[in-house]
């Protein structure tokens, strides 16, 4: 009893981390064959299944209007059926293998809820046509894709093997990920607002015609350079202007960096940084194809550079931002403070004297230096205004 009190008194993890740990954790092994992996995957897939069935029931309310055109029921229904079926099967496996049944039974329970609510065969009569919708579909698909890619990658090639997928603060970052995806329409609209306003003031049809006629790869390369010069400027301003740092400090507050930690961003940070990055791209008038290719590549790359992976890229590290380069940006070690602002091209930092990448070394500490922020999504949202 005393030990339990002592543990909770010294446990600084967010409340939701502790609550989930109390429900699901036990002293049992977590390796292959212990029922832990199958149980965790079952709970994850079961929760995704419930969310997916909710999207099928209420597509007007829960799906992002911008992504609806990409969906077709010929792959959505089999995917939802597969997710629910796997949640059942893996939950059963976990319940058989693991002495404590809570993981397996929770996964089975979620799969059961998804099935009883209609499963993959919920009728979707007419094409949803609401102009405004939440991005629950966007959240579920991205979470599934990124977790399938990055969780095994981080377990197979970890830079910090001792850092668990469920490290302190993972629930806070998952809520950041959830809310930013749910509000994707709002953030896309706010992000495009400065570019729309700039285009109203300055419109050069001849320049647009010239730029959009350049070869596809040349446009993509130019977008990366133009975007990163903008990102470098905004990022450096966020570090040097105290009123802006209050917002960007949220991104730096994580003391454990992994694929999910990159989601820890204040909405003001996202909107200002991306908004002003899009202004020169819009004014130069690149074609839609290279712009979309850039957006897809950058959303994957942004997750990758935060990942807890030990890959080494040799001399390429001087030219392309890698996890090691961006991990140094997140370090609280004095030599790395206010360094490595570029997000794609490290030579921009070399050009402006803010480059720091010691040979083959990784940081030993991450987070804020001399500041502390409470670890909860709501407090992250409100902290800059206090
Ligand atoms: Zn920063
Ligand atoms: Zn970062």
Count of DSSP-assigned helices? 18
- How many whole angstroms does the radius of gyration measure? 22 Å
Overall residue-averaged pLDDT value: 91
H and E order: HHHHHHHHHHHHHHHHHH
**Contiguous runs where pLDDT drops below 50 for at least 5 residues:** 1-9
In angstroms, what separates the terminal alpha carbons?
A: 38 Å
Strand content: under 5%
Overall morphology: globular
Specify the structural class: mainly alpha
Number of strands: 0
Major sheet summary line: none
Overview of this protein structure:
With 386 residues, this protein is mainly alpha-helical. It has helices at 2-9, 15-24, 36-57, 59-62, 65-68, 73-97, 102-116, 136-156, 170-182, 184-201, 205-212, 216-240, 242-252, 267-284, 288-304, 323-329, 347-352, 377-382. Helix 3 runs antiparallel to helix 6 (73-97). The longest helix is centred in the first third of the chain and has 25 residues, at 73-97. The two termini are 38 Å apart. The site of one zinc ion has 6 residues, from helix 12 and helix 13.
């Amino acid at each position: 009893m005393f030990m339990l009190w002592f543990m909770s008194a010294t446990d600084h993890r967010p409340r939701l981390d502790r609550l989930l740990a109390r429900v699901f954790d036990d002293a049992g092994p977590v390796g292959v064959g212990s029922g832990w992996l199958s149980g965790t995957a079952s709970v994850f897939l079961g929760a995704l299944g419930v969310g997916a069935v909710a999207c099928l029931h209420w597509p007007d309310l829960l799906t992002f209007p911008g992504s609806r055109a990409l969906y077709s029921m010929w792959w959505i229904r089999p995917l939802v059926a597969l997710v629910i079926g796997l949640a059942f099967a893996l939950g059963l496996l976990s319940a058989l293998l693991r002495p404590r049944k809570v993981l397996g039974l929770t996964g089975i329970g979620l799969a059961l809820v998804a099935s009883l609510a209609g499963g993959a065969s919920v009728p979707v009569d007419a094409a949803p046509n609401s102009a405004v919708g939440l991005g629950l579909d966007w959240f579920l698909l991205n979470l599934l894709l990124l977790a399938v890619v990055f969780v095994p990658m981080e377990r197979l090639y970890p830079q910090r093997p001792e850092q668990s997928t469920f490290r302190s603060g993972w629930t806070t970052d998952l809520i950041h990920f959830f809310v930013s995806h749910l509000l994707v329409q709002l953030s896309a609209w706010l992000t495009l607002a400065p570019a729309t306003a700039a285009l109203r003031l300055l419109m050069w049809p001849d320049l647009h015609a010239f730029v959009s006629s350049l070869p596809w790869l040349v446009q993509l390369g130019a977008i990366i350079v133009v975007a990163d010069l903008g990102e470098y400027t905004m990022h450096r301003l966020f570090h040097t202007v105290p009123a802006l740092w209050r917002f960007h400090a949220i991104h730096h507050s994580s003391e454990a960096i992994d694929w999910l930690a990159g989601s820890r961003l204040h909405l003001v940070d996202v909107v200002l940084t991306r908004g002003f990055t899009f202004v020169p791209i819009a004014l130069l008038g690149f074609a839609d194809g290279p712009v979309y290719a850039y957006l897809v590549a950058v959303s994957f790359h942004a997750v990758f550079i935060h990942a807890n992976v030990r890959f080494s890229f040799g001399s390429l590290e001087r030219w392309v931002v890698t996890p090691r380069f961006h991990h140094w940006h997140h370090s609280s070690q004095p030599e790395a403070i206010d360094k490595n602002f570029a997000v794609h091209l490290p030579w921009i930092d070399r050009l402006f004297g803010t480059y720091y990448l010691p040979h083959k070394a990784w940081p030993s500490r991450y987070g804020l230096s001399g500041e502390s922020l409470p670890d909860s999504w709501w407090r992250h949202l409100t902290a800059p205004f206090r």
